[in-house]
Design a protein that fits this description.
587 residues, alpha/beta, ABC transporter transmembrane region fold, Rossmann fold, 4-stranded antiparallel beta sheet, 10% strand, disordered N terminus
Length: 587
């Protein structure tokens, strides 16, 4: 099995999707060529019938019939082989699309905050829709459709009136297909959007089912989702009913028109304008000319989904690409400079952080304190590069975050968000940041994982889990662990690889006094090896281990000074660090 194109090689100038489809043109042109050969061989049964009725029956030539039958059999075998090769080519085009486009799309989804959350969540589903369409029956119908005029031309060669009937029939069915598409397009887009929203809300309700049960919200949520589903089913049923009416009319007309072709052929044969064999050939040719139109009409729903997926994915791939080719810089020493940093709430002009400027020297430990909603978590996210500010910048060792190769910089950063954000895999894989996927399993990774867990005070806790470091975590913030266990594993992940810079958001929120004492020791050990640490806290216990305190209020810096001067000066510890009761507030 071929491996995906490396992320650094997946980017190209222009739109990633368009560039990748252009790279698949060789397979698509070859499939079009084989479609031509397949459609030529579709004429063999008509020619066979003509020869049987016009040559074999009048002459009673058994040898000629045998020879014609052998030619028919060989032609149909070749037809089957060519059709299989055509599908194989489309499959290879689909695989090539996967190898070349999927890395870049995933990089956009996970490597930056471009686009809205819904765009990022939908992008890979849209890509899978396009890739599936490439190997589906709709592609075969689209390749066969250009051959319909050739069948109509051959019908004209049989007799002008047969050609006129074939041409009129194609126009009628094509008009019907266009009308069906116009009648259902808007309703289908609305239904698809509602389905995506309903699925997202149901997933969230399942995730929050525990809260719903405790607060007596279960019946209300169930009723709400049932009402949403009933509305969605009603809309989808209306679309399906309309499509089925159009499809039924199409089938009726195709069968009627094929029968009319037989009747017209018989009339022309009676008048001796065509031969007896041409009667059946006319019906076969007309049916073949109309088949792609009927196939497209029957596949309008997947075609509309593919068209919408193409539009969505094109817009997503037009967004700025996350930097993957930045110059590799030396490992950071740990200096952080923040210049005029402003961050706004998503979708509004309200400023969460307002024009912040400060510097942190390498090896310093800084505590972010302040009331709930002051912007501490937002500042940590901006420092770590998890979100992009509206104005201003964050610099690491003098280089802006955009100038760093984020994968390289990430190896030297430790980040622990307010929620543990653990992945549904083993504890070992979470702590090691999935390094085994890139480098393979080995004792070096195991040693680093155990060392990080030990420094975080999580080693014995992990050994007490059902399968130790191999314990599989579940989906969701809880991941099957208690709040304290989840924080311990998240802290171990932040410490993995001895990073030079760490951003820790409320690492002591769920720790008892003994656990907080271990965390203080961890911070002391980080100071000893010269790591730069920015830690937010609502509790005063960690302040004994920090060098400086930065007080935030309403998104602005109220105070930034050495810990001793802050604590002994006019500001009291209480004014610097609000009581633990506020720890659960919005950040």
């Amino acid at each position: 099995m071929s491996r995906p194109v490396p992320l650094s090689a997946s980017a190209s100038s222009g739109n990633l999707l368009h560039d990748t489809v252009r790279r698949c043109r060789r397979h698509l042109w070859a499939a079009a060529l084989f479609s031509g050969l397949v459609n030529i061989l579709y004429l063999v049964p008509s020619i066979f019938m003509l020869q049987v009725y016009d040559r074999v029956v009048p002459t009673r030539g058994e040898t000629t019939l045998l020879l014609l039958t052998l030619i028919l059999a060989v032609s149909l075998v070749v037809f089957a082989v060519l059709d299989a090769v055509r599908m194989r080519l489309l499959l290879r085009a689909s695989m090539r699309l996967e190898r070349r486009a999927a890395p870049g799309i995933l990089l956009r989804i996970m490597g930056s905050d471009v686009g809205t959350g819904s765009q990022r969540m939908q992008a890979l589903r849209d890509f899978d829709t396009l890739r599936g369409t490439m190997t589906g029956p709709i592609m075969v119908a689209l390749f066969d459709a250009p051959w319909a005029p050739i069948y109509i031309l051959i019908s004209f060669l049989l007799h002008p009136w047969i050609g006129v009937l074939a041409l009129a029939s194609s126009i009628v069915l094509a008009t019907l297909a266009w009308a069906s598409d116009r009648a259902t397009a808007t309703a289908m887009r609305d239904a698809n959007a509602r389905a995506v929203l309903a699925n997202r809300e149901q997933d969230f309700s399942i995730h929050m089912a525990e809260v719903a049960r405790v607060l007596g919200m279960r019946n209300a949520l169930v009723t709400r989702h049932l009402l949403e589903r009933a509305d969605l089913v009603r809309r989808q049923a209306g679309i399906a009913a309309m499509q089925s009416r159009f499809l039924g009319i199409t089938k009726f007309l195709r069968l009627l028109l094929q029968s009319l072709a037989l009747a017209l052929g018989a009339l022309l044969a009676i008048r001796q304008d065509i031969s007896g064999g041409a009667i059946f050939a006319a019906s076969l040719l007309l049916g073949r000319a109309l088949q792609p139109v009927e196939q497209i009409l029957g596949a309008l729903k997947p075609l509309a989904s593919a068209r919408q997926a193409w539009a969505n994915l094109t817009a997503f791939c037009d967004l700025p690409e996350p930097g993957t080719t930045a110059t590799t810089l030396p490992a950071p020493e740990g200096r952080i400079d923040v210049r005029n940093l402003t961050v706004q709430a998503p979708g509004s002009d309200r400023e969460i952080l307002s024009d912040l400027s400060f510097s942190i020297a390498p090896g310093e430990i800084v505590a972010l304190v302040g009331p709930s909603g002051a912007g501490k978590s937002t500042l940590l996210r901006a420092l770590a590069g998890a979100l992009s500010p509206e104005t201003g910048e964050v610099r690491i060792d003098g280089a802006a975050l955009a100038d760093w190769n984020r994968e390289q910089l990430g190896r030297h950063l430790g980040y622990m968000p307010q929620s543990p954000s653990l992945f549904p895999t083993t504890v070992h894989a979470n702590i090691s940041r999935f390094q085994a996927v890139l480098a393979g399993d080995g004792p070096e990774i195991d040693e680093r994982v155990v060392a990080a867990a030990t420094r975080a005070g999580a080693h014995h806790l992990i050994l007490g889990l059902p399968q130790g470091y191999g314990t599989m975590l579940s989906m969701g913030d809880g991941a099957g662990l208690s709040a304290g266990q989840g924080q311990a594993v998240a802290l171990a992940r932040a410490l993995y690889g001895e990073p030079a810079i760490l951003f820790l958001d409320e690492p002591n929120a769920h720790l008892d006094s003994e656990g907080e004492a271990r965390l203080v020791q961890t911070l002391e050990s980080l100071r000893t090896r010269g790591a730069t640490v920015v830690v937010s806290t609502h509790r005063t216990g960690l302040l004994q281990a920090v060098d400086k305190i930065l007080l935030l209020k309403d998104g602005r810096i109220q105070l930034f000074d050495d810990r001793d001067r802050v604590i002994r000066g006019p500001a009291t510890p209480q004014s610097v660090a609000p009581p633990p009761a506020a720890a659960g507030g919005a950040r």
